[in-house]
Design goal:
With 615 residues, the chain is an all-beta fold. It contains 2 helices and 46 strands. The protein has 3 domains: 217 residues, no CATH class; 111 residues, Immunoglobulin-like (Sandwich), CATH 2.60.40; 116 residues, Immunoglobulin-like, CATH 2.60.40. The chain has an 11-stranded parallel sheet with strand order 1-2-5-8-11-14-17-19-21-23-25, with no helix packed on it. Strands 4-7-10-13-16-18-20-22-24-26 form a 10-stranded parallel sheet, with no helix packed on it.
Length: 615
């Protein structure tokens, strides 16, 4: 059970047993050919566009489940950039013309036991299929996007009909789109055998836009049974002479064509549908003759399939409000499997996010809300901006931001946090785990309350954002592609100026007009504007007219540095100087003097004691 790898810059002469350029294969053709992967192996396909000019034919033989996995997050390819995994015959680019292949993109060649995941497969040629299934069985398609863009009469899965063949096919969390699509899974000629009825087993789970055709057009007495549609949106069915076990549950099924159905276990349950000739059981469902065309009203974020993204979808059409536990008819192909309940109910939506609200599935494939709900739990905003003030040089600062959706964590793919100091480059913030009441930690990130304040997050901003030397910083949070952006503008509030009255014989520190002490007490690395007033021993102001001034700062060893001054009020002896990090980077005790020089000589005012405390 080996792991194999394909990447665009690999080489088919390699072993395929590693993710690097020197080890990985280059083409899916090699990987799925006779000398490629074997039964039970896993093939990882790196991010990139694999544009083909010939059909990819599966020539391996698989007797156990074998995986073909796209890796859009590049989790298996360290150093690569996350991107889609696309297999297409649209040449050149997304805007190029189709026709690279005048046949199916992928020929399964009647091979069995394959699971395909996280790949976009596009057929851009008229009247051609994405997959030629032939007589393949035991197939799973998970988190796939099937695109038909060849204008018209396209079939996504061209199936060779065989009466009596148990297919065991599962589509889960997939999307089918395209204006050229005529049908999706097309098994429309199951022969004219005289019996008996047989198990077909095709399950569509949490999918969007799938079109399923299963017909025994030549025999109305015997036919296949076992078609299960669970939590799907815009899924259409074309059934004829099916003989039981057809369940449509928790789904939008806008178009059900049913002819000559018979047998037991056929039910439309907790669904909105529009059916022709359906005379079987209907439970808690709404017959609504509206048609939702492929792609109409679909959130663009559904194209992010294969990630952990979520999107709150609001449908303009009324539909059934979910209430209670939607247990419903047991789905035998899903019941008890990992990720499903004992009756086959999926525990998460198409994006693997837990169902919101009361925890039970919504009608359809992804989290949404009934038009009859009076209070919507949370509606994301396009952008939220706020402005706050923080002292320059502050440390261990926590802010609160709104990011457009609930349930994000520090490991959520697509979460981007950063800060930009005024007129400086952006700096990414690496999010780390945090709790609502936890001690500050750089990059700490958590949701405050998914119940009471959904979408509000705590963020511990790195101390480097607040270092002196600029006027402010902007902190930006991007929850996920297409969701809200939070911008917090932080302006640095300058510390209150220190009013110091300095006399030849006495030094008095003032705040306003109130005498406090004779010490400047500051924190290491901070910056302050210091305002001074010069007086004689009797408290009379010493004017600055005709004089020059400077400040001398002496440390404990007697080393003296100087600072320039600015005259504020000449007659009142008022001046100021900037106490920058050049003087406050080292903790210790200092003495501050003011030198006044005029034609009569030099006067020295001070000293004033200054204490710089370590962080």
């Amino acid at each position: 059970m080996a792991n194999y790898y394909v990447r665009l810059d690999g080489n088919d002469a390699n072993t395929g047993l590693g993710y690097t350029t020197a080890l990985a294969w280059q083409t899916p053709e090699k990987a799925l050919g006779a000398t490629g992967i074997g039964s039970g192996d896993t093939l990882w396909i790196a991010p990139g566009d694999y544009r083909r000019v010939t059909t990819i034919t599966v020539n391996g033989t698989y007797t156990a489940e074998t995986f073909i996995k796209g890796d859009p997050t590049a989790s298996q390819f360290p150093g690569m950039t996350a991107a889609r995994v696309l297999i297409s015959n649209r040449v050149g680019s997304d805007n190029g013309g189709g026709g690279g292949i005048q046949n199916p993109i992928i020929d399964l060649n009647s091979k069995n036991f394959m699971t395909w995941e996280n790949i976009i497969v596009e057929q851009a040629t008229l009247q051609r299929a994405n997959f030629h299934v032939r007589t393949s069985t035991n197939l799973t398609f998970r988190k796939m996007i099937f695109l038909g863009t060849g204008q018209q009469q396209q079939t996504i899965f061209d199936v060779t009909g065989v009466f009596g063949l148990t297919r065991n096919v599962l589509f889960t969390q997939c999307i089918q789109l395209g204006y050229g699509v005529q049908t999706g899974w097309s098994d429309g000629n199951l022969g004219s055998a005289t019996g008996p009825n047989y198990t077909y087993n095709l399950t569509v789970d949490r999918c969007y836009g799938m079109y399923i055709t299963v017909q025994n057009g030549s025999n109305s007495t015997f036919g296949p049974r076992g078609i299960y549609i669970v939590n799907c949106y815009n899924v259409s069915l074309n059934l004829a002479n099916n003989k039981g076990n057809i369940v449509i549950r928790n789904s939008y099924a806008p178009n059900i064509q049913a002819n000559n159905l018979a047998g037991t276990g056929m039910i439309i349950e907790n669904s909105q549908y529009y059916a022709h000739n359906w005379n079987q059981s209907i439970v808690n469902s709404l017959d609504d003759a509206w048609h939702l065309h492929l792609g109409a009203g679909m959130p663009a974020r559904l194209f992010q399939i294969g990630s952990t993204y979520d999107y709150p979808f609001h449908d303009s059409q009324p539909f059934i409000k979910n209430s209670g536990t939607l247990v419903g008819t047991t789905i035998p192909t899903l019941a008890g499997l990992p990720g499903y309940s004992a009756t086959g109910t999926p525990l998460t939506d198409i994006f693997e996010n837990p169902w919101d609200g009361n925890g039970t599935p919504h009608i359809g494939a992804f989290n949404n809300y009934s038009a009859t709900v009076t209070t919507v739990p949370y509606v994301p905003s396009e952008r939220i901006e706020s402005t706050i003030s923080v002292p320059e040089g502050a440390t261990s600062q926590t802010i609160y931001i709104s990011l457009g959706w609930s349930g994000l964590t520090h490991t959520t793919a697509g979460l981007v946090l950063s800060y930009t100091r005024d007129r400086s480059a952006s700096v990414l913030i690496t999010p780390v785990a945090q709790t609502v009441s936890g001690a500050w930690v750089s990059g700490g990130f958590c949701e405050v309350s998914a119940v009471n304040q959904p979408g509000l997050y705590r963020l511990d901003v790195p101390n480097a954002a607040f270092v002196s030397g600029t006027t402010g910083v902007a902190v930006v949070g991007k929850g996920l592609t297409g969701l809200g952006i939070s911008i917090t503008h932080i302006r640095f509030s300058a510390p209150a100026p220190l009013m110091v009255r300095m006399g030849t014989f006495k030094v008095t520190r003032m705040r306003g007009n109130r005498v406090e002490d004779t010490i400047i007490d500051i924190v290491q690395g901070s910056e302050h504007d210091i305002e001074l007033a010069l007086e004689d021993a009797d408290g009379v102001s010493i004017p600055l007219t005709g004089a020059t001034t400077s400040v001398s700062i002496a440390d404990s060893s007697g080393v003296v540095t100087s600072a320039t001054t600015t005259t504020l009020y000449s007659d009142g002896g008022r001046l100021s100087f900037r106490l920058s990090t050049a003087y406050t980077n080292e903790p210790g005790t200092y003495k501050v003097y003011v030198n006044r020089i005029d034609n009569d000589g030099t006067q020295v005012f001070g000293p004033l004691r200054m204490v710089v405390r370590s962080l």
